[in-house]
Write a structure and sequence with these properties.
The complex is a heterotrimer of chains A (about 350), B (about 725) and C (about 200). By secondary structure, chain A is mainly α. Chain A has 18 helices and no strands. Chain B is built from 20 helices and 17 strands. Chain B has about 725 residues and is of the alpha/beta class. In chain B, helix 5 packs across helix 6, helix 5 crosses helix 8 and helix 18 runs antiparallel to helix 19. Chain B is elongated. Chain C starts with a helix and ends with a helix. Chain C contains 6 helices and 4 strands. With about 200 residues, chain C is mainly alpha-helical. Classes of the chains: A mainly alpha (about 350), B alpha/beta (about 725), C mainly alpha (about 200). Chains in contact: A-B, A-C, B-C. At the A-B interface, helix 1 of A face strand 16, helix 10, helix 12, helix 13 and helix 14 of B.
């Protein structure tokens, strides 16, 4: 007869990886819009460039690996990687920074480990970290300054020429809020810094707006159950606690408000740290993983040489994921206690 | 009725579309009797039943047609009257699509019951409370009742809780799978049966409290049950509990957790925590069996899905073919065709439709592709962890998947794959459409297979080693024997050498040699006599040689006397040789089956038995570890003695009586002797079991009785056969 | 000068002290947490399939295990096949090698011996050949195989003078059947997928 015989269940909630990826991309929209409005078209161009390069690299490597190209491009995972990378890179960074970062993320960060689902590190952050350690100057000087500080941002054509033709970007760039606070606080008080143009206006001259926009997108994802609340919450709580306990004196350390609402904090908490492939998978593990990122972000921001720290913090905690997972297995129904620890072969 | 118990939550769970409304619009209908019923012998967990009627036999409705095989098994009854036309392998409704032995019943349409007194009538009591729980259990086992919820575990065994006191009986009316409404309709229409069944169960378990757990999406069922409880005046004992609708709250372990907050220990059964859980349909079947004497011959099955034009519930006879049923529901085949037995979450797709309804078939689901779309291609796992969130057993489905996929079976086991209830929630939510449950089923099967193989390997190893040890022992024994023989030969050689001095007393063993020698000597001296005679004659004829005649005459005389003496010696030697053959008695001459021989055999066997017994006694005294080996040895020896005795007696009767058909009698005699032996052995074993207080006593006692019966039978036969012949 | 000397002496003594302490700890741990391991032959024997078929040219699994412990190759066991070779390689820390075809091929399905009983002449030759005593019978009596104990080693087939022994595949029934792992979807290469889709249609 040949009726269809497949294993149960015979029904599905019709969710899909593709759908989840699309939702996450959609959720970056508020942050993207706000940052484009405040810092100009650099981000838009970066994202576009990153997507094109990412799709090209992905397709090429799928061909090399003899995998069905259309089937895999369709899952949107590489588009999401490219979008996150584009959002994370300095808006006015030269084009080759984006290309190198994207290429590295796709080829080394993802496919050399076996493709989607098999990469131990967050590919976007791997690409970001590569360009950050390789080209520190380009990565720290090309941050666009806010429209709030300068009243005007570079036009689309100006931005294009800065990124692709290497035109001078000096007129449009400025240090990030985190970076300048860290340097200024060594010989100024918090009250004096607040007078600086980078910090003028409500909520630190725009950086906070961008972060708030990412927060909105992130909360929407949590509400839609695309991501779980564990990692963002534990990361933000850990970061806050560190800041409150160690850096309570705003005249010596960056204050909590700046930690939470500047740099890549919210983007990292809701979009980067929550990348399911490279994050911890158990409930308790997620809390530990998030908290670890929070602590590392604080430590690197405060005592490290780099202005922001989300990429390194995430990569460091990626390394710890198998270990965390092994020790945070839940107690299974009907068992007295959880089986913890790394698997050991039972002597027969 | 207000709920007095606190509900607990289960981990995870999902809310798939219920799709229950379609099939609850009409009341339960009774399906007509088809022409032919296919009754698999294996419709439950445990051993398959064994047919107890023959092909061609007419059976009545309710007649037992296959009895249980051992403890974990249930019998099978004819669902209607008709003729058994076949007992053969037919495809059975199982995920494998394999064939198993089925009984095929050609229905005659008369639906004629055999006498089926209820247990109440049998015991002549009016109330269930007056029945003994043990009697009810036996009766339920005989009525072929297995769990109707889906797993099909023999009910009597589930109720046989041994030493565990039961404080709560749970009747499972949750029916959490989408589409299925068989229990729902049963509770609505036959709530009184469910409650009455619950009362019987409470009595069997000697338990004070029953909870009927029903999901809150079945308000009509809850109302009907509550009314039935009040009508039966059981409000103090039985409580209907409405639980939140969530899949898989109807899983036994999950329902127990929801209602009591307790967890069934991993690898344990609910009785370990004082709980017994039964499906509501099973409770109803229990009621029908105990109070109406009906064995389990029909069940309520939901026929639903958009491919059925009239989805509804039917009371169907077990064995009814599914294509027949689907026609009743107005089934229209779809392309691609897909029919599921059970629900969409845990049911299995049928390979074709010529399969029967069995005791566990609660639903036949024929969906259109639109309502239950086929799974898309699985993509890579992105470790999103949604499976972990919905898993009711709090497993890590994703880890199980990775390890199952790479066949790292010990890691799968380490991650508690055997606590997986295969509810399918993880597959349901997986955004990558990975058939997770199939992976776990594969892993479980592979692990079980591996375990079985390991066990077998272990057994093979033991057997091999035992064989080696035995062969070595045999070799050693042979070697010892060979040595003994060699020694004997050596001593004999020595003796011979010593005897050379006085050959007169030649040992019996060299009789043949002597004979031969003498024969040769005889021949030689005969020849000498002949020669001498010739010479003498020649001398007498020839005058020239006349002077030699006296010498020759003397010589002839000498030779003749020598010949005489040799001949005499030879005669004596022959006599001796003959005597020696008769004394040793082991030569090839004579009939081996002569009574004399057999008697001797018997005697030697007895002697050997005595020595063996002596050795055994010694070993026992000294508590050697060879006792068991010796025991078997003694037993074997005893057998041999008996055999020898039997053979001897048989031969005697053969020789003594000239009865024409002595071989028959002879056989009978032998059988009786063997039977006597068996009876003796069984008695021995029984006493041993009694002394050591084993629980096999009953079985052994039964065995003994059987053996005795057989013996008696044989003896009767002997009397019967010998009397007419003797006269 | 004296301070330098003192420093050197101090350094040496501290290092020596540390060495002593750690040595003591290690020594204690070695005694206290001593792992009672199986002798290697037993461990190897555990991994062998125990069919006792002798295809490895040793008279049983245990002798082959002993030979492996003494440096024999690990790829001579056809009944165990690749999985056994892999397990042995893991245990012994050597590279797995492909099965030595000289000793036979791995069976696709496990088999058991079956005696066509009406043809059996009762010669007991198979009984003598069976390494695990899985054949019952006596001289001039019909023999039969205890299927549960048969390891499928084929050793009884050869000696039978009337060729009445078949090796039949172990039957699958609903008690021992289980789902196979899903056929991989995405892992297939592009051309395979096209074929599969065509098949599905």
């Amino acid at each position: 007869m040949g009726l269809l015989t497949l294993s149960s269940p015979h029904t599905h909630n019709q969710n899909s990886t593709q759908h989840m990826m699309q939702m996450v991309i959609l959720a970056t929209l508020p942050g993207f819009v706000v940052s484009t409005w405040l810092f100009g078209f650099g981000t838009l161009i970066n994202i576009t460039l990153a997507i094109v390069v990412a799709l090209g690299c992905e397709a090429a490597i799928l061909v090399v690996r003899k995998r069905p190209v259309g089937f895999f491009l369709n899952d949107y995972s590489i588009v999401l990687t490219a979008v996150l990378l584009g959002l994370a890179l300095p808006p006015l960074a030269p084009w080759w920074i984006t290309v190198i970062a994207t290429f590295f993320a796709v080829v080394f960060g993802k496919h050399l480990y076996g493709g989607l689902g098999n990469n131990p590190f967050n590919p976007a952050m791997l690409g970001y970290a590569l360009v950050l350690v390789s080209f520190p100057v380009e990565m720290t000087t090309n941050w666009a300054s806010s429209i709030i500080a300068t009243d005007v941002t570079a036009s689309f054509s100006d931005t294009l020429s800065i990124i692709f033709a290497g035109a001078s970007s000096d007129a449009w760039t400025g240090a990030t809020a985190l970076d300048s606070y860290k340097h200024l606080i060594t010989n100024a008080t918090a009250a004096e810094i607040a007078q600086q143009p980078e910090f003028s206006g409500f909520l630190n001259a725009g950086w906070a707006w961008v972060n708030l926009a990412y927060l909105v997108g992130g909360l929407w994802l949590v509400w839609r159950r695309i991501i779980s609340w564990h990692i963002p919450l534990s990361m933000l709580v850990a970061l806050s606690l560190c800041s409150l306990i160690i850096g309570w004196d705003a005249d010596m350390y960056t204050p909590l408000s700046l930690h939470l609402l500047s740099g890549a904090t919210m983007l990292g908490a809701f979009f980067i740290a929550t990348d399911p492939v490279s994050a911890s998978t158990t409930t308790r593990g997620k809390l530990i993983y998030g908290a670890g990122i929070g602590v590392f972000v604080y430590v690197i921001r405060t005592w490290g040489a780099y202005p922001d720290a989300v990429a390194f913090a995430v990569l460091l905690m990626n390394l710890a994921v198998p270990f965390i997972d092994a020790y945070t297995q839940p107690r299974t129904y009907g068992h007295n206690k959880a089986k913890r620890g790394l698997y050991q072969k039972q002597p027969k | 009725m207000t709920q007095m118990i606190r509900l607990h939550d289960i981990h995870g769970g999902i809310h798939p579309a219920e799709n229950k409304r379609q099939s609850t619009q009409t009341a339960i209908q009774v399906a007509p009797i088809p022409n032919e019923l296919i009754l698999p012998l294996h419709q439950h967990i445990g051993a398959a039943a064994i047919p107890c009627v023959n092909v061609g036999e007419r059976v009545l409705k309710g007649q037992c047609i296959a009895h249980a095989d051992g403890f974990v098994s249930v019998p099978l009854h004819a669902p209607t009257s008709g003729t058994i036309v076949d007992i053969e392998a037919r495809p059975v409704p199982h995920a494998s699509g394999l064939s198993e032995t089925c009984m095929v019943l050609q229905c005659d349409g008369q639906d004629e019951w055999q006498a089926h007194p209820s247990l109440l009538e049998q015991k002549n009591v009016s109330l269930v409370e007056q029945l003994k729980p043990a009697d009810i259990l036996t009766f339920l086992a005989q009525s072929g009742i297995a769990g109707l919820g889906g797993a099909g575990f023999p009910t009597a065994i589930k109720l046989h809780t041994g030493n565990y006191p039961i404080d709560t009986l749970i009747l499972n009316g949750a029916e959490c799978e989408p589409y299925i409404t068989a229990d729902d309709m049963l509770m609505r229409e036959r709530a009184d049966e469910v409650v009455a069944g619950g009362e019987i169960l409470l009595h069997v378990l000697q338990c004070a409290r029953a909870l009927i757990g029903v999901e809150d999406n079945k308000p009509e069922a809850i109302a009907a049950l509550e009314q039935a409880v009040i009508d039966a005046h059981l409000s103090h004992k039985i409580q209907v509990v409405s639980i939140p609708t969530k899949y898989p709250s109807g899983g036994e372990k999950q329902l127990i957790q929801i209602l009591t907050g307790k967890e069934v220990p991993s690898g344990g059964i609910p009785a370990h925590i004082g709980i017994v859980c039964q499906n509501v349909a099973t409770a109803s079947a229990i009621y029908r069996a105990v109070v109406h004497g009906e064995p389990l011959i029909h069940r309520i099955t939901t026929l639903t899905g958009d491919a059925c034009q009239q989805p509804s519930n039917w009371q169907v006879l077990l064995g009814t073919p599914i294509d027949y049923l689907l026609t009743l529901a107005g089934y229209q085949a779809q392309q691609p065709e897909r029919v599921i037995m059970g629900g969409p979450m845990m049911g299995f797709a049928l390979p074709h439709l010529q399969l029967p309804v069995i005791k566990t078939s609660n639903c036949i689901l024929a969906p259109k592709a639109k309502e239950l779309p086929l799974n898309e291609y699985a993509t890579a796992c992105i470790r999103c962890g949604q499976c972990t969130q919905v898993c009711p057993a709090e497993l890590l489905p994703q880890q199980l998947y990775w390890f199952s996929k790479t066949q790292e079976l010990d890691k799968v086991e380490q991650h508690n794959v055997f606590d997986c209830i295969e509810c399918g929630a993880c597959s349901y939510v997986c955004p990558s459409h990975i058939p997770l449950v199939q992976y776990y089923r594969f892993a479980k099967g592979a692990i079980r297979e591996e375990r079985a193989a390991q066990e077998k390997a272990l057994r093979a190893k033991e057997r091999f080693e035992q064989r080696l040890a035995r062969q070595e022992q045999e070799l050693a024994e042979k070697e010892a024997k060979r040595k003994a023989r060699a020694e004997a030969a050596a001593t004999a050689q020595k003796a011979k050498q010593a005897d050379l001095a006085e050959p007169a007393s030649a040992p019996a063993s060299s009789v043949d040699d002597t004979l031969e020698k003498l024969n040769k000597q005889l021949a030689a001296s005969q020849a000498a006599v002949q020669k001498t005679k010739e010479k003498l004659a020649a001398a007498q004829a020839d005058p020239e040689q006349a002077d030699k005649i006296p010498a020759l005459e003397a010589a002839l005389e000498k030779v003749t006397s020598k010949l005489k003496s040799i001949a005499m010696e030879l005669a004596a030697a022959k006599k001796a040789a003959a005597a020696s053959t008769t004394t040793t008695g082991d030569s090839d001459k004579g009939d081996p089956n002569s009574p004399e021989r057999l008697r001797k055999k018997w005697e030697t066997a007895q002697l050997r038995l005595q020595t063996a017994e002596q050795r055994l006694a010694e070993a026992m005294e000294q508590q050697l570890d060879t006792v068991s080996a010796l025991q078997t040895g003694v037993e074997k020896q005893r057998e041999r003695v008996n055999d020898a005795l039997a053979a001897y007696q048989a031969s005697q009767t053969e020789t003594q009586s000239d009865v024409a058909n002595s071989p028959d009698n002879h056989e009978l005699e032998k059988k009786i002797l063997a039977q006597q032996d068996r009876v003796a052995k069984a008695e021995e074993r029984l006493t041993m079991a009694r002394e050591s207080g084993l629980d096999t006593v009953d079985a052994l006692a039964m065995g003994l009785q059987k053996q005795r019966d057989k013996l008696a039978q044989l003896e009767q036969q002997r009397v019967a056969s010998s009397t007419p012949e003797g006269v | 000068m004296s301070t330098t000397l003192l420093a050197i002496v101090m350094a040496i003594s501290i290092v020596a002290l540390l060495a002593l302490i750690f040595g003591g700890i290690l020594g204690f741990a070695a005694v206290r947490f001593k792992v009672e391991g199986n002798p290697i032959v037993d461990q190897i024997n555990q991994l062998l399939p125990q069919t006792q078929c002798g295809q490895c040219s040793y008279p049983g699994c245990k002798p082959y295990a002993e030979a492996i412990a003494n440096g024999e190759k690990i790829n001579k066991c056809p009944p165990g096949g690749e999985s056994t070779i892999q397990a042995l390689a893991d245990l012994l820390g050597v590279e797995p090698e492909p099965l030595d075809a000289e000793h036979g091929a791995e069976k696709a399905v496990p088999t058991v011996a079956f005696i066509r009983e009406d043809e059996c002449i009762g010669c007991t030759k198979c009984i003598q050949a069976c390494p695990v005593d899985a054949i019952l019978g006596a001289a001039k009596q019909m023999h039969t195989v205890i299927a549960d104990e048969c390891t499928g080693c084929d050793l009884c087939v050869e000696p039978c003078p009337v060729d009445c022994i078949d090796m039949i595949p172990v039957s699958t029934n609903i008690s021992n059947w289980y789902w196979q792992a899903p056929t991989l979807g995405v892992e297939l290469i592009a051309s395979d997928r096209r074929a599969r889709r065509a098949e599905a249609n």
